[in-house]
Amino acid sequence: MDRALDFIRAKAENDRPFLAVIWFNPPHSPVVGNPRYMAQHYADLPENQQHYYSLATAVDAQMGRLRNTLRELGIADQTLLVFTSDNGPGPPVGRTFKPDARLQGSAGPFRERKASLYEGGIRVPGLIEWPTQIRSGTVIDAPCTTLDYLPTIATLLDIELPRRPFDGIDLMPLLTGAQQERGRPIGFYFRDAIALSDDRFKLIDAKQSRGRGGNDRAFDDRKFELFDLIADPGETTDVSDRHPDIVIAMKSELKTWVASVENSHDGNDYQAGKTRLFLLSGQSNMKNLDPETTFLPTLRKSFPNDTLILVKVAYGGRSISRWVPRGKIYAELLGKAKEAIEKNGTATNDLDSISFVWMQGERDHQQDATTQAYADNLRQLRRQLIDDFGREDISWVIGRLSDARVSTANWDTIRQIQVDFANGNSFAKWVDTDDLNGVNNGVHCPPEGYDEMGKRFATAAIELIQKEETN
């Protein structure tokens, strides 16, 4: 939790959104209790229970730290906080529960335990807190799953998911009361046991294979049970004989879902998209731009199935001479790009596109000589990239200097050189940044200016890529 809180504080202090995923091992085995909580709260219990219950208290305390920190930072009302468990209590089904063992979790009225597809293995409580969006005290009776996290978050952030099967749904209509039922069943597949749960009924073949692999039983040879989870959440009575039409319909849907799962398992739903390299470089305005905030999200909307490799090397107060001819900063950029390409397992020639995003020139306007050499240096920089990547089709996005020092002779000259370079080349576009530098019209931008800059850079890169790929 310490590392998570440091991460959250850093994001909050810079007014940045964040996603934090925090996994607790307790009270999973090995069950080694918290001595302080054992003594404070559970000293009158048997030692094995002291260990188990003190770990639950330790998790509770850490969640308290998290919630208190969100309040202290003033972001609790805008933060979606979710707490749940991954499965029912141990020991797993098939192993004997020993009252004197340290694993003391209970599935309550539900059938079986961890590693079972009966409710005792898969039904767990879930808590969601989002004060500005979800009314306190709301209770959702419809079944939900952690598979719903992805489509819910994607919808909230207006992110288009890749075109492939997803089992989850957007939970917000349920959480806000706009929808009362899930409307879409949840499938389960574990060690050859399979199940399908909808808003009322659950169809299950609970027989498991040994080990983690399946035993390839034919679907039509399976023996299913049907439970009414509203009337019988403990799954004590098989009602398949009473509802043959429901069994037929759910078996058909489950068979289709299992085939889809196996298709995904074989990799058929995840055919590799294109691989694209984006190089970002320049001076302080590029240094201050966080590509994770708007640049990459904008790219992902247009290229949801593609692998996007991003490399950024930028330093404040540096002339273009640090890049050409093959200066130190250029060497660093090239080295990191080659390393990232190799790490991705891709050859440079196999990249489907390379985009170079450039925001620089503030330093060069300070001297007549560097201003006069700027156009030649831009052309030299392009030639270096072509030679070092061995391809001509590198697209360029150039952020034109803002209007912070318009009417300063050299500043205006640099701006015009950037525009002329882009307008004179079909592979390039220039981006207007005049309205991004805040009310004081400074050389640097406020956070919202960099956010918009990232969007504009990404949009220009997308347009160039799409133009090249449609020709």
Can you walk through the features of this model?
- The chain has 471 residues and is an alpha/beta fold.
- Helices cover 37% and strands 13% of the residues.
- The strands form three sheets. It has a five-stranded parallel sheet with strand order 8-7-9-10-11, with helices on both faces. The protein has a four-stranded antiparallel sheet with strand order 3-4-5-6, covered by helices on one side. Strands 1-2 form a two-stranded antiparallel ribbon.
- It has three domains: 1-139, Alkaline Phosphatase, subunit A; 185-266, Arylsulfatase, C-terminal domain, CATH 3.30.1120; 275-470, SGNH hydrolase (Rossmann fold).
- α9 runs parallel beside α14 (447-470) and α12 (374-389) packs parallel to α13.
- It contains 14 helices and eleven strands.
- A hairpin with a 3-residue loop joins β4 (193-197) and β5.
- The chain has helices spanning 2-13, 35-41, 47-72, 119-122, 149-156, 172-175, 244-265, 284-288, 295-302, 328-343, 368-372, 374-389, 409-423, 447-470; strands at 81-84, 126-129, 186-190, 193-197, 201-205, 225-228, 275-282, 307-314, 353-359, 394-399, 428-431.
- It is elongated, with a radius of gyration of 29 Å.
